[in-house]
Amino acid sequence: MTATTTSAAPPRGRIDKRAAILGAALRTFVQDGYGLARVERIAELAGVAKPTVYNHFGDKETLFRAVILDGAQRTSDQIVAALETLPDDGADLAGALARVAQKVIDCQLGEEGWSLQRLMYAEAARFPDLFDDALRRGGVRVHNALAGRLARLSNRGHLHLADPDVAAGHLLALVSGDLPVLSALGTRKVAPDDLRRAIAAGVDTFMRAFASGPGPSAQPVAGRRTRPATGPPR
Amino acid sequence: MTATTTSAAPPRGRIDKRAAILGAALRTFVQDGYGLARVERIAELAGVAKPTVYNHFGDKETLFRAVILDGAQRTSDQIVAALETLPDDGADLAGALARVAQKVIDCQLGEEGWSLQRLMYAEAARFPDLFDDALRRGGVRVHNALAGRLARLSNRGHLHLADPDVAAGHLLALVSGDLPVLSALGTRKVAPDDLRRAIAAGVDTFMRAFASGPGPSAQPVAGRRTRPATGPPR
DNA sequence: CGTCTATTGAACGAATGAGTCCAATACCTT
DNA sequence: AAGGTATTGGACTCATTCGTTCAATAGACG
Q1: In the CATH scheme, what is the code of domain A68-210?
Q2: Which of A46, B31, B128, B213 has the smallest count of CB within 10 Å of its CB?
Q3: pLDDT at A17
Q4: Is the CB of B48 under 7 A from strand D?
Q5: Which residues of A touch B233 (CB under 8 A)?
Q6: b/e per residue B8-22 (b: at least 16 CB within 10 A)
Q7: How far apart are CA B45 and CA B42, in angstroms?
Q8: Which of B131, B178, B223 lies closest to A185 in CB terms?
Q9: What CATH number should be reported for the domain whose range is B15-58?
Q10: Counting one residue from A and one from B, how many pairs have CB atoms under 8 Å apart?
Q11: B187 pLDDT band (50/70/90 cuts)?
């Protein structure tokens, strides 16, 4: 019946439904939170019928988990790639750090980055194991990549790091500490100038603390807890 | 367990229902998120009838806003009070900073602190204005209190700060940057030793950057920190 | 060309939860 | 002691949404 005359119908064929669903789900979950997100809306946004969603992922919770893990993977891939661009020679170290920090933060500020972060904060209480998984897939890789990079710089004498792991954490904290406020938890677009200033200030403090100063004052850490420093002294 | 003794019938009288509701609401919202939190459950947890909740606060959203603002106020009161204990003389500055940081973080790690933070992250997309209000009531006051304290130390020569505002942000970032990971976004109890170590490391980096002689680059941050009041995007 | 699988639209059942109404009751004030 | 007010429990309305079912269809493939 209705021998529908071919055209005017959206292409029903098998495209990449799965990816479309994941994307739509991310947007929806982010906007409404897990509880209020409607599966039907996700389907609609993905240009897909609701049963198709249930065909691919069993139920809402499974879909949610897939969204988080998939996103964490992709975002951290981007960030790690950005970190690769940090040169090993110490030329204009501050500038190089600022540039790489800018890239990293751009990844985090992209639609996906903040959205994911907010989602994880939001639902951490309900899906504690999920956060652990995402951290393993995301944060840890970023942290290690940066720590490795910094260790190299330290080995070559361009930085004085007792512990590259700690330094990596501190650098990340310094350059991105203002982000939540600047972006109002990701709900506001950050003025590029504000961001640049924040990054510059963070890198500046980092350099003050860890750059091999021209002077003899390579002050060793006072009252340091014994922590296996993966980075040997200069 | 409500403190009241006696018989099977819970004391029906007018006690501090409002506070009880706010507390129960915080716990519930935190656990389930705004969308999935059930008002009936809040009432039950507060030892109160559901209509009473609606008598005090008009509806779910109003209740939520009250929870956030009230919590932000109280938490930041605590933190500001803790900051007052930072001495102005430079004796054992690192130790003093670590102690005050410990207090501040304790406030943030308490049931209320993390819960609130997670809640705001979670629902920032749906209640953007609410976050601004909470920030004004909470974060800004903490930041200013710390900046004032640091400025004093700087004036007396115990620190070398080009911009106490920036330094305050950096100190907070350094000592609490590891918190999300350590506590798994507030879902895991942080080992006191790990926390102490993280704080000590943060303070140590801060001291390296700002305690010794005037660093190589003492560039004061150019622009004043202005609040983009719902400014035009891009 | 004929078959098979993924997809579609639409509707359905069941459950859930916001917000309201009301008569009964406990506390506070005068 | 009397009267007013806040509170209570529970039932009720109404809307929403998860997850499912089913016949019809579009493209893939031998």
Answers
A1: 1.10.357.10
A2: B213
A3: 83
A4: yes
A5: 189
A6: eeeeeeeeebbebbb
A7: 5
A8: B131
A9: 1.10.10.60
A10: 178
A11: confident
A169 at the B interface (CB within 8 A)?
yes
Dist CA B198 CA B105 (whole Å): 11
Check residue B212 and give its pLDDT: 60
Structure tokens at A172: 């990340």
Annotated domain spans of chain B: 15-58, 68-210
Express each pLDDT in A16-48 by its tens digit.
Answer: 888 999 999 999 998 888 989 999 999 999 999
Distance between B13 CA and the closest CA of chain A, angstroms:
34
Whether residue B227 has pLDDT greater than 60: no
**Confidence tier at B185 by pLDDT (50, 70, 90):** confident
- ipTM (interface pTM): 0.78
Is strand D in 7 Å reach of the CB of A10? no
CA A107 to C1' D27 (Å) is 38
The answer for residues whose C-beta is within 8 angstroms of residue A60's C-beta and 6 or more apart is A34, A37, A39
B173-197 per-residue burial string, b: 16 or more CB within 10 A, e: under 16: bbbbbbbbbbbbbbbeebeeeebeb
Is the pLDDT at B218 greater than 80? The verdict is no
CA distance B9 to chain A (A): 34
**Predicted local confidence at residue B137, as pLDDT:** 86
Considering only CA atoms, which residue is closest to the C1' of nucleotide C21? B51
Q: What is the pLDDT of residues A198-214, one digit of tens each?
A: 999 999 999 999 986 54
CB of B175 within 8 A of CB of B198? yes
Kindly state the greatest CA–CA separation across chain A.
89
